[in-house]
Amino acid sequence: MIPNVVHFIYFNGPNSRDFSYLNYLAVRAAHDIQQPDTIYMHYNTEPVGNPNWDRMKSYVTLAQITPPERLMGVKLGYVQYQADVVRLQKLLEHGGIYLDTDILMLKPLTPFMDRHCVMGAEGYVDHAADQHTSDVDKVGSISNAVIMAEPQCPFIRSWLDATPKALLSKIWAYHAVMLPLELYKLDQGRFDLQKVESFVPFDFRNAYIFENDHSNLSRLTDSYTIHMWETIWRDKLSLLNDDYMASEQNLFTHLFGKYATP
Length: 262
Hints:
Elements: E1 5-10, H1 21-34, E2 38-43, H2 51-56, E3 61-64, E4 70-71, E5 74-75, H3 79-94, E6 96-99, E7 103-105, E8 117-124, E9 139-149, H4 154-167, H5 174-186, E10 192-194, H6 196-199, E11 225-227, H7 234-237, H8 242-247, H9 251-256
Parallel strand pairs: 1-2, 1-6, 2-3, 8-10
Antiparallel strand pairs: 4-5, 6-9, 7-11, 8-9
Helix pairs in contact: 3-4, 4-5
């Protein structure tokens, strides 16, 4: 059984992004839609004077930690890699639902809570669209932006144990999105693999979420979350604030405008 607890991570530092309005929306949507027992925000230092952080704090339990610099002797040279490791450590210890801070929840993850571990495909082979399948031969990578696991989950432990060697790869984030797929191929009973549309229904090349075409809402019928590609869509997402949510007419504001303050 997966505990109804949500984990977010935000590491503040020289190479980190500011805690954004989108990040506040991620926490708020998880709070209102999943209605978890607790939302943990694992962080190192608070971003002083950041209104989005200050606004978010009332919805979470702050859990201060020191980001690990190494894992089993292998250097974690990027803040993203530190967060990749911490999410597995916290899930192994506590279980629950891990969400990236650019994942917005659309509906509760209740149907998955009785499983041991749940992950979703991030893309299909050759970037094929609308496959609507969890066929491992058609899955190109697995997302680590949404991970659900029970405490002491064997797959999370094996993934964490295999991560140091995978970190030596020259492929960016190989340990995060390719390693879990390789482990799954060895034993498809390790976790329940969901189709792309469940957690990452569109990739960064398809920004229909910002279009004023509500017919696209039907494309999210099978989706529990969406990934807003914060690094790649930085310019678009920097425009988000309460005024934007109140004035713009697009699918994004239709879905999440209710979280804006009038």
